[in-house]
Amino acid sequence: MTENDQGNVPSRQRKRFPGISSRAYEHPADRSALVALRKLSGFDTVFKALSGLLPERSLRLLFLSDSVRVSDAQFSHLNDMLRDACYILDLEKVPPMYVTQDPKPNAMCIGLDEPIIVVTTGLVELLDEEEMRAVVGHEVGHALSGHSVYRTVLLFLTSLALKIAWIPLGNVAIMAIVTALREWFRKSELSADRAGLLVGQDVQASMRGLMKIAGGNHLHEMNVDAFLAQADEYEKAGDLRDSVLKILNVLPRTHPFTTVRAAELKKWSESRDFQRIMDGHYPKRSEDKDTSVTDSFRESAGHYADTVRTSKDPLMKLVNDIAGGAGDLAGDLGGKLRSAFGGGQGPTKPDATGADGTAGDGRSAPDSGTGTAQ
Q1: I need a labelling partner for 39 at 20 to 30 A (CA). Which of 28, 273, 335, 372 fits?
Q2: Which residues are catalytic?
Q3: What is d(CA 118, CA 225) in angstroms, rounded to the nearest whole number?
């Protein structure tokens, strides 16, 4: 970290995104949910009411007493990365960051009043500087999106709901809610991965970090291209039974599988949306209040439709084929109806032409010039 007359700047030259809105990098499904929540009248009041019930103050004291707070005096290299990430994404208030003893590589961003970032020693020891920078950017992305607020509330509500799941039929309803929340959680992780790439601006480092989280600190034994090939194989392999198993495997998870995350991030890094952000064209925070909920939901629906259409998964291909077949059937039926009613110009006097295009006596009927189903 260096300083000049303009204030803090990143330790190496990276593009900065003044006033960037989290909408710039949020996954469509994540964005539509957040826009709806932000527009919901009285939601802030609910937050304040719930804040008295949540053990947030206790959690802060726990990390303060039994973890190491990142600062210029402790884990200074992480502190530099944190300030760099906040500078690049133009997050005004740098959130507190703690390192906690845990051999499992992990990181999280939680908190209602203000976000707290926590990383484990397992993660710090696993990743190199550029890989870790992407992870810190990932967590700062959560903070900028407001994920820490919604996640804390929703996790609390989920935990509370599970405690009353003994109520008749309660378990079915609760599991439906939990499943929906986990689907949003997984999409929010894809959003934060994109934020990490905007901060690190090194797609290979982001790929390596995900690969290490999956396979450990044996980078010389791994290959990014082969790792991405696994994601492609995972998506298109097997038959319908495997598709169902994949759904069952992912349902209890709050994070997408690492190969899937890597493939999604690689795809986004090559997209026009990413290039426009890097060129300085992106939504601004000042415009967030004017965001249309309807447009956000429409974009989310379009994303899911495109996912089904382009997926190599056997089940998704079947769904797409069925949908396409239904469309063809509807078009065919519509064509026949238009033909029967004079090309859509209203009912006409029926002639002696049969359904197979021949006259009633079996002779070929003359071409009437009206449209027929293709």
Answers
A1: 273
A2: 139
A3: 30
